[in-house]
Amino acid sequence: MGTYDMNLWQAEAALKEHNIHFQPGLNEDLTATATWGAQNLGLFPGARVEGVFSIWYGKALGMDRSMDPLRHANLAGTNPKGGTLLLVGDDYGAKSSTLV
Fold it and tell me: Helix, strand or coil for residue 94?
């Protein structure tokens, strides 16, 4: 997971060509809450696009920390025109980058 965002930055031009916006999150919790919004497409009038999809990515420790918004997003269900994919990398040594 450590190089995933670096690859997205490198592909910025190609992503823009396909109307894909890469917005890194401030931390796992805020990002999980923000990506939850992709599942709410169609609940509010005035949508300017048809189909919103988000990807939340992080290490296993970040997922543990973010389980509350992830659990609520899961219980909220999905929408035919929006959703979120979680990508989680395991950290066998349990050595977070915050615990250098």
Answer: coil
